[in-house]
Automatic annotation (TrEMBL):
This is IMPCT protein. GO terms for biological process: GCN2-mediated signaling; regulation of translational initiation. CDD domains: RWD_IMPACT. Coiled coil: none annotated. PROSITE patterns: RWD. Gene3D superfamilies: Ubiquitin Conjugating Enzyme (3.10.110.10). One of its GO terms (cellular component) is cytoplasm. Residues 14-116 form the RWD domain. It comes from the Eukaryota. SUPFAM superfamilies: UBC-like.
Amino acid sequence: MAASDMETAQQQIDEIEALSSIYGEDWCVVDEREKIYCIKISDSLDQPKWTLCLQVILPPGYPTAEPPIYQLNAPWLRGQDYMELANSLEEIYLQNLGESILYLWVEKIREVLIEKAQSSDPEPAIKKTSEEVDDDDGDDFLLEFQPIQEDPSEMFNYLTSESQEVDEELPSIHHGNPVTDRRSTFQAHLAPVVTPRQV
């Protein structure tokens, strides 16, 4: 191992030890051998409204020649928010080439979360489990279930019969913006329907 490689490896070890002692339980070693780490960052210590998990992989050339590989994980972090935060982290790297930057990244993310908490942004929506769903949530969209009393084949014939209006207007389909999260892309498609035939 060259002297510069040993120096780089020692810089990584020193940085990891420092971050581990600063952040305590929020710092997590995912894979020591592969140098994969994760840190939970929130807007406050008491009752955080906004949290985010920063996962980093330290390549052999970090910090002298390569940036860390990172992933930002938060269910609310999408689109413009994601781009702005990623750009901020890359800007910090460029301003501090050759230096250890993970502490700067963590504090920048914390600063963004504190700004969100202090702004008028509502708290991120947290999905409720079926046991937690409020009875009065979404009443506008609930339909009462009524079992079909008719023979299913008759119902099918009714839906497909030519006695129905052939020129019934089909609803327009609205396509949402694609969202990419952890190498998976999702896109919503919505159409308002009022008759079984439109479905």
